[in-house]
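Q: What structure does this chain adopt?
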Amino acid sequence: MDEDVARRMLEVLEGIRANQQVQLERQAEAMELQKRQYEHVQSYNAGALKGARRAMTIIPPLIVIVLLLIIWLLFRMRIF
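A:
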């Protein structure tokens, strides 16, 4: 009887070890997927940041030019 119990315990422990190995493999796959997703998001954000920087070099000078044009037109019409 003790031998049957010991054999059964050994089978259970081997099953636990096998399940743990499967779980570790799944975690490794999930981490690899997360890493790829993170890298994709980083590259997307880098592109968005590049576009924002480009816009910030163009938009402020345009705003100044438009404001100067409006002020010039107002002075030309002698509103001030």
